[in-house]
Specification:
mainly beta, SH3 type barrels, Cathepsin D, subunit A, domain 1, 8-stranded mixed sheet, 3 helices, globular
């Protein structure tokens, strides 16, 4: 599991006892905390101080009072986890843009960090070079500077930017040759911490 090291035993804790996961979806969970039902996306914190670190259709990683635990649907006990050291990537601007070397499913690729892009975005040529089949994506209308276009939306197994790698990242394949450089959009960026250090952009794993 990315960024986490499982403890060797099931340890029911005070933090775990009043938390129950009622529904699971990619990057989202419905969590009952102290009798209150909350819908959380990855990175969000409930009024009770429970943060959703990651989620898929099988389990959620929740953090409370500095403790992280893996919850499965309907369970009131959890496997406690110990966070590993956070991965950090520092990016210096080039020609006013933040370029970062990365990879998709282990295949090298350069990105431009683009907070205005909803998803990680590739052009059709890049997708083919990475072995991605646009036909398996969901047709989706998006507005661009050149008008509305139909893109193919899909999920990537692994996306790496510098030393940070995330799994199950939503992406789109654009028709034609735009964008010329792949965009590292918010489907990746909202799952990391972004901090400006002068001209340097620092990305830090959660």
């Amino acid at each position: 599991m990315r960024g986490l090291l499982l403890a060797v035993a099931l340890l029911p804790t005070a933090a775990a006892a009043d938390i129950v996961v009622r529904a699971l979806m990619p990057e989202m969970a419905v969590v009952e905390v102290e009798g209150q039902r909350r819908v959380l996306r990855v990175g969000q914190t409930s009024p009770e101080g429970v943060t959703l670190i990651e989620a898929d259709s099988e389990r959620a990683v929740l953090e409370r009072d500095g403790r992280r635990a893996i919850y499965r649907l309907g369970e009131t006990t959890a496997v406690t986890v110990v966070p590993r050291a956070k991965a950090v990537t520092r990016i210096r601007p080039r020609r006013g843009m933040y370029y970062v070397d990365g990879a998709i499913d282990g295949k090298p690729l350069a990105f431009i960090v683009d907070t205005g892009a909803t998803w990680v975005s590739l052009n059709a040529s890049q997708a083919r070079e990475l072995g991605l089949d646009p036909a398996r994506g969901i047709p989706t209308k998006v507005a661009t500077a050149n008008g509305t276009v139909i893109v193919r939306r899909l999920r990537l197994e692994r996306v790496r930017a510098g030393g940070i790698e995330l799994r199950n990242v939503e992406a789109v394949i654009m028709p034609g040759d735009a964008p010329p450089v792949a965009l590292l959009g918010m489907s990746f960026l909202r799952r990391v911490h972004m901090v400006r250090e002068g001209p340097i952009l620092r990305l830090e794993s959660r």
